[in-house]
Amino acid sequence: MSTQDVEPLNVEQIREDFPILQREFDGNQVVYLDNAATTQTPEPVVDTICNYYRQTNANVHRGIHHLSQEASIAYEEAHDRLAEFVGASGEREEMVFTKGTTEALNLVAYAWGLNELSEGDEVVLTEMEHHSSLVTWQQIARKVGAEVRYVRVDDDGTLDVDHARELISEDTEMVSAVHVSNTLGAVNPVGELADLAHDHDALIFVDGAQAVPTRPVDVEDIDADFYAFSGHKMLGPTGVGGLYGKKHLLEEMEPFNYGGEMILRVTKEDATWNDLPWKFEAGTPLIAQGVALSAAADYLEDLGMDRVQAHEEEMAEYAYDRLTEFEDVTVYGPPGDDRSGLVSFTIDGVHAHDLASILNDHAVAIRAGHHCTQPLHEKLGVAATARASFYVYNTREEVDALIHAIDDARQIFA
Ligand code: 7TS
Q: Which of ligand 1's atoms lies nearest the C-alpha of 180?
C-alpha cells in the first residue's frame, strides 16, 4: 500500500491521550522512541482498566452472581474482539489469551512440539528470530532430537526466500518466522512462507509481536496455523497477549498448563478438557488485562490500521534518511522506504550503550543492546545496536530531537 493513499493520523490529537508524553526530565520533555520494547497506554485503555476494577471486578466462568457474569461476558467478548482484529473468523475459539508472545511460543512449542516432533524432524526458523522463538524451539528440538535450521538473512537485511525454498523439505514439521523483525524492521513474506510450509505438510507459527501493532494483519489471508502478539506493544497493558490458532489444531493439541478453569470434569484418576479457548487458559485468567486489550484494539481500529502503518513507515523513512546523512552511522536492515517503523544503527567508535546514555541526557528514550536477537547481531558483526522505534504519537520533530542528540554524542566522542 502506498503511504500516500491514506489520510495522515492527527498526531497532535492522539498525543492528548498520552499524558506520559508530557513528562520532563531535567527540563527536557521526554521523546519516547522505545516503542518496539513497549508502547504507551492511552487514556481510554487506562480508563477501561480503572473502570473494570471500580465497577466489574470478579472472577470469571464460575460465578453466578451479577459481577461475575458481567466480568465473564467482558472477558469472553474480548477474545472475540481480538480474533476479529487479526482476521480470525473462528472468534473466541481461535483466540487464546497468553501473557504475551513469549508465552504463546512456549505454549505451542510445549503443547504441540513436545508431542509432535521427534528425531529427524526439522524446525525451520529465520536468522532474525527474537530469542522468544529461537531459544524456545532450540530447547524443545533438543529435547526431542529434532534439528533447527535457519533461513538466511541477506546482506540487505531481508529474508532470503530462495534459501527458505531450499531448506523447507519433507522433514520440516514447523516453520516459525517473525513477521516484522524487531531489529531490522524487515517485513517478511509470511504468506509465502506459509505456502512453502503447507506444500511440505508442515505448520507455520508467525511471531507477530511487531506486526499486529503496526499494520493490518489478517491471519487467514496469511494462512498462519499459529499467530502470536503482545498487548503491551499495541497500546494495551503488560501481561497479556494473544495466540491465534486454527481451531482443529487447538482442538487436537494437549493442554499447556493444568489446573482450574481449563477442565470439564475431574475424577481422582483423570480429567477432560474445557472448550476452546479455555482449555489453554489454566487458572484465573488475565481478566482486567484482556478487557483492556480489547479497548486497545478499539483505539487502534478507530485510528485505522492502514493509517497507523502509513505513519510508522513515514517515521521510519524520515529517520532512515536523516541517519544516513551521517557518514559514521550505519543503519541495519532494508532501505528506508521498505521497512516497518524502527531503525537500528551504530556510530563508528561509539558504543550503543554510551549513545543511549547521552540520548537519555536529552530525555530521548531509545534502546541499546542486542534486542534479544543475538545470533542476528553476530551476523551483522556488532555486539549491540542502538534502536529508535516509532508509534502513532511520534512526530518528525521528535526524530529531529533524536538526530540533534545523536549529533551531540558524536561531538562528545569525536
Ligand atoms: N517477538 C518479537 C519480534 C519481539 O519484538 C518481542 C519483544 C517478542 C517476540 C517477545 O514479546 P514479549 O511481549 O513476550 O516480551 N521485543 C522486545 C524488544 O524488541 N525490546 O524489548 C522487547
A: 3
Q: Tens digit of pLDDT for each residue in 52-74? A: 999 999 999 877 999 999 999 99
pLDDT tens digits along 86-96: 999 989 999 99
The yes-or-no verdict on residue 98 having pLDDT over 60 is: yes
182 in contact with ligand 1, CB cutoff 6 A: yes
| CB 101 near ligand 1, within 6 Å | yes
Domain covering 46-302, topology = Aspartate Aminotransferase; domain 2 (3.40.640)
Is the pTM here over 0.90, yes or no? yes
Hey, which of 39, 137, 176, 210 would you mutate to test ligand 1's pocket, going by the most ligand atoms within 8 Å of its Cβ? 210
Among positive and negative, which fits the CA dihedral 304, 306, 312, 315? negative
The pLDDT score that the predictor gives to residue 238 is 98
Q: Which of 343, 372, 376, 386 is catalytic?
A: 372
- Cα distances (Å, whole numbers) of residue 331 to 27, 65, 94, 406: 30, 57, 39, 13
Give the C-alpha separation, 250 to 78, whole Å: 19
pLDDT band per the 50, 70, 90 thresholds, residue 100: very high
Residue at grid coordinates 505438510: 201
Domain 3-32+304-413, CATH class in plain words: alpha beta
User: Ligand 1 in contact with 34 (CB < 6 A)?
Assistant: no
Mean pLDDT of 395-401: 98
Structural domain boundaries of the chain?
Answer: 3-32+304-413, 46-302
d(CA 243, CA 1): 26
* Grid coordinates given for 225: 496455523
Tell how far the Cα of 133 is from the centroid of ligand 1, in angstroms: 10
